[in-house]
Structure formats: C-alpha cells, structure tokens
Amino acid sequence: MGRYVLRRLLATLPVLLLVSLLTFALLWLVPGDPASMFLDTSATQEALDRVRREMGLDQPFLVRMGDWYWRVLQGDLGTSLLLNRGVTEAILERLPVTLSLTAIAFVFAVLIGVAAGVLAAVRHGRAADQGVMTLALLGLSIPEFWFGLVLIWLLAVTMQWFPAGDYVAFAQAPLLWAWHLALPAFTLACVQMGFIARMTRSSMLEVLGQDYVRTARAKGLPEPYVVLRHGLTNAMVPIVTVMGIMVGALLGGAVVTEQVFSLPGLGRLIIGAVLSRDFPVIQGGLLFLAVIYLVVNLVVDLLYAALDPRVRLE
Amino acid sequence: MAAVMQAPLLAPPGRSDTLGRRLLRNRSFMIGAVLIGLITLGALLAGVIAPYDPLKGNFRARMVAPSAAYWFGTDHFGRDILSRILHGARISLQIGIAVALVTGLLGVVIGAASGYFRRLDGPIMRLMDAFMAFPGIILAIAISSVLGASVTNVIIALSIAATPHTARIVRASVIVVREMEYVEAARAIGASHTRILLRHILANSMAPLVVRMTYVFAVAILNEAVLSYIGVGPPPPTPTFGAIIANGRDFIVAAPWITVAPGLTVLVSVLGLNLLGDGLRDVLDPRMRVNAR
Amino acid sequence: MNAPAPEPLLRLRGLDTGIGPRGPLILYGVDLDLAPGEVLGVVGESGSGKSMLALSLMGLLPQPVAVRAGQAWWGERDLFTLRPAQRRALRGGEMAMIFQEPMSSLNPVMRVSQQLGEVLRWHRGLQGAPARAESLRLLERVEMPDPPRQLDSYPHELSGGMRQRVMIAMALAGRPRLLVADEPTTALDVTIQAQILELLRRIQRDEGMAVLLITHDLGVIAQMCDRVAVMYAGRIVEHGSALDLFDRPTHPYTQGLLASRPRLSAGAGWLTTIEGTVPAVGQLPPGCAFAPRCAQAGDDCAQVPALAPCGPGHWAACVAPQRPRPAQGPHR
After folding, report:
1. Chains C and B in direct contact, meaning 3 or more beta-carbon pairs closer than 8 angstroms
2. Residues of chain B with pLDDT > 90: what percent?
3. In chain A, which among 228-267 make CB contacts under 8 A with chain C?
4. CB–CB contact A220 C93 (8 Å)
5. Is B142 in contact with A271 (Cβ distance < 8 A)?
6. Cβ B130–A15 below 8 Å, yes or no?
C-alpha cells in the first residue's frame, strides 16, 4: 500500500505543475491591457502605471513567471487590486465557509443518493424504482442557482422555515451554522444526488446479479446483510472513483450557490473578482481550488485502493 | 471491450431492426426528443411567434401576472416574459449546439491523437488532467471574464471547459479499437495512419461520442445560464435565460413568474436532452456509463 | 420409487418450476429421492433444467423463475411451504450448495477468513478465536496447502482450484447433511478436476453427507455417483444406480449420451451424435419431448411417458421397452 501511495503522489506532481502554469497563463489570455481592464477608461496614466507595476506587467515574461512561482511556493498569492490585501489572506478567511458548504453538500449527496440508488436497485422495475429514477433525472437537469432561488422563495421567504442566507461560524453557534447551511447545501447537492442515485442503482443492479451474491444467499445469510455487506461494498467501488470528480463539481457549484445565498465564501470572492477584473484574486482563487481538487482526488484514490485490494497491483 | 463493437451509426438498410426504428421505440429517446423538439421549434420560430418585442418594455404593464394577454407575465420593465424566453431559447440553443460541435471536434482531435499515438498520450493526458482540476463552471467563468462578454467568448469558454472529458472518452474508445485485430490487419496491408484513424478507428468510436455530445449540449445550456446570471455572459439587453432569472431575483416575492418561467424552460430543455442522451446510449450501447456533467 | 431403504433425506414430488406465475415451465413434475449419505448424480445437457432443479431445492431461483407446484420433504417439513427465514436457516447449514464458477463465486473485496467466518457466525454461533480455529481446520480439511496464509488472502490471490476448495470449506462450515454441487469441476483444469472430485468423495464418505451432483460429464458420474438421474427438457427420463445406467441404459436419450462419448479405442471415424437439438423452454413438442430426435419413436409416443420400472431400482420414462418385441425365433 505504501508504494501505491508514493506512486500516486509522484503522478500528481506534473499535473500540479501544469495547473499552476495554466493559472499563470490566464493573465496572458487577456486581450489588451489587464491594467486598463481593471481600472476604467477614465484612469490616469499614473494609475495605470501603478497597477501595471503591481501586477508585474512591466517585467519581462520569464522574470514574471519565476517571481510568481517563487511567491506561490511561499504561500503568497499576490495582492488583490481591489481590496488591497493579500490574496492568500482573503482566501483563507473565506475558505471555511466554502468548505463547510461543500462538505455538508457532499454528505447530503452521498447519503441520500446512495440510499435512493440502493432502494431503486432492490425494488427494480417497480414503482419505487421509477419514482427514484425520475427524481434523480430531475435533480440533474435542474439549474442549481434557479433551484436555490425557488427554495429561498418557498421555504425561506414564504414559509420562513429556513434563513435566506448569511453564514454563522461553527465555532460561534453550531446549530445555527447547520441551519443556515441546510438550504444552500441541499441546493448544491441536488445535482450530484441525482448522479449518485443513478450510478448507485446501475452499479448495484450489476453487482446483485453477480455469482458471489448468489453464493452469499446460498449461505443462508439474511437479505439486508447480503445487499449491504456483499452488494453495496462492491457496488460502491466504481462510485468512490467518481467521488473526486464529484467534489470538483460541488466546488464549482458552491461558487454559484454562495452567490445565490449570499454566503461570504471563496466563490463570492472569485465572482466579485471576476466582475471587477481583479486578476490576482482570480488567479489565486483558481489555483487554490485546483489544488484542493487534486488533493481530494488523491485522497479518493487512496481510499479506493484501501477498499478494493485488486487496485494496488496496478 | 465490446463496448465499441456494436452497430455502427449507419446500419445497412433493409433490416427491420435498423437504428432509426430502435430509437423510435425507445421511450426515453422519444420523450426527450419531443421536449427538446418543442423548445427548438419555439426558438426557431421565435421571431415569428413571439407575441411581443422581447426588448421593448411597456411601462403600463409592469409585473403583470400570467394572463391571457401575457402568457408568462411581464417583468419590471413591462417586457413580455414569453417573448423573452423564446428569444432566450434561441441564444441558448445556438450556444449549446456550437459548444457541442466545437467540443466534439476538439475532443476527437485530441482524444484520437492521444489514443492512437502512444508517445503523445502521456503529455496530452497530463494536460487534460490539469484542465480538469478546475471545476468546469469556474474555468468557464474565468475564461469568460478574461476574454470579455460576448456570445462567441461564452462558446469558447464553455468548449474549453467541456473538451478534456470528451477527449478522455474519445481516447478510451480509440484505445479499445486500436487493439482490435482488423486494425492490425489494416496496418499489415500498409494502410497509412490517417486512413486507419479515419476509416476504422473513428468510425467505431462514434457511439460514445454522440452520446457525450448530447450531454455536453445539455450542460452548455445550464452553464450558459449560470454565466449570464452571474453577469459574464452575453451582455444586456440580450434576453438570455440567466439574465431573465437574474432580473427576477429581486422581485421574486412580488413577481415570481419572472424567475420561475425561464428556469422551468431550462429545466425542460436539459431534461429533454438528458432523456435523449439516455435513449441514445441505451440503443447504441447499454453498457456505456457516460457522466452527464 | 426406492425399494425399502433408510428414511430418505429428501423426497421431491411433482416439482414444477416455471417463469412467473403463468409463463412457460422449466421443470415438469420432477420426482426425486435422496437417501442419507448417498451421492446422486443428475446428468443432462445445457437446457435440461438440472441447474434449475438444484436452485429450486435451495430456494435460490432468480426472479422471475419460481416453484409452481410440488413438495420437497426434508424430514417432516415441506421446504416449499417454509417461510423465508426458516429456509435461510437451512440454507448454508443443513443444505449447502457449491457452484460452477469459482473465479466469480467469491466476493472479491472480502478475505477468505471473513467469508468463512460469516457461515460460522450465522449457522454455528462462532466468533473470534474459536471461529478462526475452526476456519483453519476447515481449510485443512479441504487440503489447502497453506491454511494460515490463505485464510487471510483475498480471492484474487488464489488459483481456481483453491477457490473451489474454499467454496467447499464454506459449504462444510455449516455441517450440511446435503451438499448440492452444480458442476463443481467444469470450470477447472482437468488435473484439478480429478483432485477436487476425489476430495469431495473423501469428505462425503467421512461426513456421511449426501451429495446431489449436477453435471453434464459422464466421466464424473462414473467416478462419483451411487445413483444417477438423467434429465431431458425439464423431466427426469431415467434413473437408477450408476451401474444400471452404464450397463443397461434404457431410455433412448441415455443410450444416445453413452454412445456419443468419444472413445480412444474406437479408431478414427465419425463421432456418434444425437440428431437435432434440445427444445427451448416453452417450446416442447406434444407428447414425449425426445420423440423428434428418437430413432425408436412410434405412435405411442404421442403421450408423455411416465416413469416405468425396467429393472430393480431402475426406472425409465419410455414406452419403447414395453413394446412387444418382434418374434425372434426359438430363444427365451
């Protein structure tokens, strides 16, 4: 197992390198002058020069790149043009919000999605199966942000069951924290829920038809135990591989969900930066998200190897 | 392995079980086709059947609830929501199809190159992995913001976001087919790389690609709505779905129809496309498990 | 049925198994007796229903196939009227089954110890150290080369023969009185086949276990079985002792099976075959199902023949032996 871990770590490095390169290259793509995109057309030449210097645009390309890498490795992602503070600082401040949201959504998606998928598989062909699959299909066809708005309208504003937004830190008041995140997390999770339900169902159906499930039944083991211990553990194997990608999708969706529910997270920061052309923040935010994604995927791969011993031989 | 060895897209005529007939019998495909077909029809005929000018507001008819005169009501400027939705559908579908086609093309080129030429495989796939490390929507937002707001830029951004996964899928098919014996045979008789690629490998890799493109289309519609909602999509006053929903956000209590109607339209379009994709997948190869997003 | 013998372990009467409540039948009125400690072979081609027979007995029929009629007397109880929980208590305990494909019949993500432990825990209440000790003993019993190491292995680390031994160990763990073996050696290499069969024979003798051995291989029958039942198209067409079957095959199908074995001594020549193919489920001809392929078919084959005695403890479902023989000259 140890060797597998090492191998996976080494495999991630080149991707990490490319990711950082791509993030850096984003600035390149800008048609025209990034500085004047940030300031508006009435900016003075002096202001333009200052911004250019801050963004390092007056340096030759390789120097810029080297400088950027040097700083990034030290954890310094630059300075926000708009907020005039360190990008890293701003991101770290908002990270707990995004992570909380994503984590709760992940839990929702997995718990509800897997349960629904198992139910549909066990009741294959019957009403429960059709019902679950229809809901799953709706779930993954729905525009998340719109669903969030509708939920706010119905459950928060009209019924007043949930708050319409804002964030309360866990350390401050755990219950409030959960209550405020319930609606956004559910919204965020609904697409992935649909996915997981469908995947779990088809994986379970395949597994339940396998010989070793028949052997388990032949041993006289109770059906729920067979379905869960023999069926689900095997069915989850392909699903676990997808979980890394799922977290990526959740992170992406979190960005939008934060906007809809006014949560002060990384997503709001990035969107704010996007709208005001605050390039250092955009770059820093992107890099951060990508790194989180890579780390999560690494963890998922390792989990997968722990679950399914056959993988370690690869 | 046999995932690719199934009926090619053009089945020989004369067999009663042709691809077309099987598609027509597939319930998922048909329902999906009807849904997206209706919306496409509405979009195509938007100019003709839209009862009002989507951009012109009637200040005396602001925030009117759905009624006989205004089927989906009006917004805060007195603009007819139905007309805006019909025109918005046009834009969304255009963008969706463009993204699907561009992604398809790029995906095929990159995926085939990667799958067929072993020396290119490693570096290309690392690059694709790197792109996929950014959540698709974020990548699209970032690229869109950097390039500027316009329909073309949205298409570019969304295509870049969707290509890596597509390339992966094409590459997988190509690798499977590459190992098949008839490719070896072709090589043995001296066929050039290009010929092998085009005639043998790609022809048999089409099925997963077609299914994937349907899903890419669906996701493009959704992502375009997000981009417009946030404000990095086609600039106002273009009546994109996202823009209409964004407009309605502030009036959701007073005039919920402004938000609900366009969202439902997106839902129906994407649902239709997903059903279409599912149906295609069932008919072309039930063993494929393609992720819809 | 049987001549007076010890109380049969299993008495099967009139088993009908079919697809759904109204679909075609797969098994028609199967009767079977199994004495304790007896090895009964069930032989037939693919499609004869022999696997379905085993699954019907064990209560493992796949949806939508189900038992539609008949009784299976296990002691005083009719298996088909038991509640699922009662059946499960028997399954894996007193009645155990092993299958054909050892490569896929073991759970790939569970260790051997866990898969054996399940049976011990569930049927014999053993856990922890006693369970491990018993698991090791069972692995030794099935002649695994290195029980302690293999106990902690995953199935993919074991060869086909070893996996089948593990399957047998799991079956033995519940101390079965009946072992149903569905083609246990078909998927194995020939040399391993012989080893496994010998193992089964030894265990069967030592434990006094009855075995219902399903196979299409006459060689296996010859090696293992006390009595044999021949199945064709969902019915038993002949049954008797193994000796009777090989020396005095009565049903034309049995005769055909025996005749079609390739023989080294026969020299080069055409293999004997039985013309035609087994009818598909639900598409049986009226009357005797074998008649279309039978050289001895006659008008009296328009009725499904019942099993009729053709020797002590030997029955065949064919009217041909009953027909008056043409005069053969002065000979009695």
Report:
1. no
2. 19
3. 230, 233-234, 237
4. yes
5. no
6. yes
Percentage of chain B beyond pLDDT 70 is: 86
Q: Say yes or no to pLDDT of C324 above 80.
A: no
pLDDT at A113 over 90: yes
The answer, for B215 touching chain A at a CB cutoff of 8 Å, is: no
Contact A149 B252 (CB under 8 A): yes
Judge: C108–A212 Cβ closer than 8 Å, yes or no. yes
Q: Is B133 at the interface with chain A, CB within 8 A?
A: yes
Look at C109 and A307 and tell me if their CB atoms are within 8 Å. Answer: yes
User: What's the rounded mean pLDDT across residues B68-97?
Assistant: 87
Predicted local distance difference test score (pLDDT) of residue C327: 62
The two tokens of residue A242 are: 């997808």
The minimal CB distance from A221 to the residues C96, C122, C154 is found for: C122
pLDDT over 70 (residue A43):
no
Tens of pLDDT, residues A175-189: 888 888 888 999 999
Residue linked to tokens 């801050």: A54
Q: Which secondary-structure segment (H or E) carries B255?
A: none
Chain A environment of C96 (Cβ under 8 Å) = 218-219
**How far is CA C235 from each of CA B184, C52, C248, C287, C318, rounded to the nearest angstrom?**
49, 11, 20, 12, 12
Structure tokens at B29: 């495909």
Tens of pLDDT, residues B239-272 = 889 988 888 888 888 888 888 989 999 999 999 9
Binding-face residues of A in 203-222 toward C, CB within 8 A: 210-212, 214-222
- Nearest Cβ partner of C104 from A212, A219, A222? A212
Q: Is the peptide bond before C64 cis (omega within 30 degrees of 0)?
A: yes
Q: Across the interface, do A210 and C104 touch by the CB < 8 Å criterion?
A: yes
Any B CB within 8 A of A11 CB: no
* Mean pLDDT estimate for chain A: 83
Considering only CA atoms, which of C226, C283, C294, C204 is closest in space to residue C256?
C294
Predicted TM-score (pTM) above 0.95 = no
From A105's Cα to the closest Cα of chain C, the distance in A is 29
* Confidence check: pLDDT of A262 > 50: yes
- Is A140–B293 a contact, with Cβ atoms under 8 angstroms apart? yes
Distance from CA of A233 to the nearest CA of C (A): 8
How does pLDDT run across B150-189, given as a tens digit for each residue?
A: 888 889 999 999 999 999 888 888 888 777 766 677 777 7
Contacts of A18 in chain B (CB under 8 A): 126-127, 129-130
DSSP secondary structure code for residue A56 in this structure: T
Give the span between the Cα atoms of A66 and A69, in whole angstroms: 5
Q: With 60 as the cut, is the pLDDT of residue B5 above it? A: no
Closest CA to A203 of B26, B3, B287: B287
Nearest of C259, C279, C255, C278 to residue C270 by alpha carbon: C259
Per-residue pLDDT reduced to its tens digit, C217-227? 888 888 889 99
Q: What is the ipTM score, two decimals?
A: 0.85
* Segment of A160-169, A274-283, C10-19, C297-306 carrying the highest mean pLDDT: C10-19
> In chain B, what residues touch A252 (CB-CB under 8 Å)?
135-138
